[in-house]
């Protein structure tokens, strides 16, 4: 009998994972925010995955955090700023030897979660897959990609990687997951805040090459100082490549701001600036970028942390 995959958060990534696992015949249960969300979910009859124009409805059972069944395996699929509270709500249900997969972008939330549940194994993930909601309980699989998974404390891969393969979830076990998370954070810091401040698509940053290059130099210095030299390698080159390859897209931070949604700034640029301060590293352009972004968010009435 397979272990149940509990998925906390029926948003874009949570739905993308839950539907593919369920479609492969694996036992999946969704954990929803509260009884009202659970009733709304039950009325919809399940989660819908839209892939290449085809919709499929998967009748995945739902519950709230207060359900009594033990949790052996949990996919944490909420935003970074919700992660710690979400895990605290299910902590009493974690079985001995429970495993958590943390899908949050950026850095900082993984440590906060691990500190909340020292009895569990926390596996961090970094994903290039893309999905968005086009309605309640409906998700469009927008960008094929890859998910790297790893546990910096224990290099042994978990036994369930085969289940991801059987579900068609492209993945790789990484013994350098921290380096991957730092690299992605640095790319995000060099691109996303500037797209908000210049109100442009990623490609619009080709008009601001000097600003991008200066940020990349400071971010590389930070990565070196934080013991992540591999994440600093050819950073500027990769940033320029990403800007070109995604020229027509709006960054996730730009989308959040223009839709009046909270950003994950504290786990991206905020985390980078805090790390610099901890190392007493002067990175004036990065610090100025954070201040400009905070001002912009405050002007729009959005949380700046
Ligand atoms: P999302 O669509 O906003 O989904 C988050 C979900 O978590 C929401 O459905 C929210 O519920 C739920 N949630 C929050 N707190 C909860 C709680 N205590 N109990 C139950 N449910 C709770 O976010 P997302 O786009 O999937 O992003 C998740 C993470 O993946 C982020 O860190 C993001 O940066 C990262 N990521 C996303 C993508 C992507 O393509 N979407 C790609 C790579 C990485 P409500 O609906 O009730 O608010």
UniProtKB/TrEMBL annotation:
Q: Where is the Ketopantoate reductase C-terminal domain?
A: 177-291
Which biological process, per GO, is one annotated for this protein?
pantothenate biosynthetic process
Cross-referenced Pfam families: ApbA, ApbA_C
User: Which InterPro entries does this one have?
Assistant: 6-PGluconate_DH-like_C_sf (IPR008927), 6PGD_dom2 (IPR013328), ApbA (IPR003710), Ketopantoate_reductase (IPR050838), KPA_reductase (IPR013752), KPR_N (IPR013332), NAD(P)-bd_dom_sf (IPR036291)
| Record pathway | Cofactor biosynthesis; (R)-pantothenate biosynthesis; (R)-pantoate from 3-methyl-2-oxobutanoate: step 2/2
One GO MF term attached to the UniProt entry: NADP binding
- List keywords of the entry alphabetically: NADP, Oxidoreductase, Pantothenate biosynthesis
Keyword flag Oxidoreductase: yes
**Catalysed reaction per UniProt?**
(R)-pantoate + NADP(+) = 2-dehydropantoate + NADPH + H(+)
Superkingdom to which the source organism belongs: Bacteria
> Any signal peptide, and if so, which residues?
none
* Domain Ketopantoate reductase N-terminal residues, every copy: 5-151
Q: What is its EC number?
A: 1.1.1.169
Q: Name one GO cellular component term.
A: cytoplasm
Presence of the UniProt keyword Phosphoprotein in the record = no
Q: What does this protein do?
A: Catalyzes the NADPH-dependent reduction of ketopantoate into pantoic acid.
Check the record and name the NCBIfam families matching this protein. Answer: apbA_panE, PRK05708.1
* PANTHER family per the UniProt record, alphabetical: 2-DEHYDROPANTOATE 2-REDUCTASE, 2-DEHYDROPANTOATE 2-REDUCTASE-RELATED
The similarity comment for this entry is: Belongs to the ketopantoate reductase family.
Protein name as catalogued: 2-dehydropantoate 2-reductase
């Amino acid at each position: 009998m397979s272990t149940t995959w509990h998925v906390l958060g029926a948003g874009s990534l949570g739905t993308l994972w839950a539907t593919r696992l369920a479609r492969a015949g694996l036992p999946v249960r969704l954990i929803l925010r509260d009884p009202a969300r659970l009733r709304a979910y039950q009325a919809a009859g399940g989660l819908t995955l839209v892939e290449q124009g085809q919709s499929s409805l998967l009748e995945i059972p739902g519950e709230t955090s207060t359900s009594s069944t033990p949790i052996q395996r949990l996919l944490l699929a909420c935003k970074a700023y919700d992660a710690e509270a979400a895990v605290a709500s299910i902590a009493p249900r974690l079985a001995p030897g429970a495993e958590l997969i943390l899908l949050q972008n950026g850095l900082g939330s993984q440590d906060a979660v691990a500190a909340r549940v020292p009895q569990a194994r926390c596996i961090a993930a970094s994903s290039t897959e893309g999905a968005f909601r086009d309605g309640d309980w409906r998700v469009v699989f927008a960008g094929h990609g890859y998910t790297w998974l790893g546990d910096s404390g224990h290099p042994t891969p978990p036994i369930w990687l085969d289940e991801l393969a059987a579900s068609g979830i492209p993945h790789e076990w990484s013994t350098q997951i921290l380096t991957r998370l730092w690299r992605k954070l640095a790319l995000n810091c060099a691109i996303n805040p500037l797209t908000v401040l210049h109100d442009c698509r990623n490609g619009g940053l080709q008009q601001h090459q000097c600003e991008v290059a200066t940020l990349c130099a400071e971010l590389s210095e930070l990565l070196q100082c934080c013991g992540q030299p591999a994440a600093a390698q050819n950073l500027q080159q990769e940033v320029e490549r990403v800007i070109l390859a995604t020229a027509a897209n709006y960054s996730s931070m730009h989308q959040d701001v223009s839709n009046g949604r909270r950003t994950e700034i504290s786990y991206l640029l905020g985390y980078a600036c805090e790390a610099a301060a901890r190392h007493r590293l002067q990175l004036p352009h990065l610090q100025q970028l954070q201040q400009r972004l905070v001002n912009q968010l405050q002007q729009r009435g959005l949380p700046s942390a």
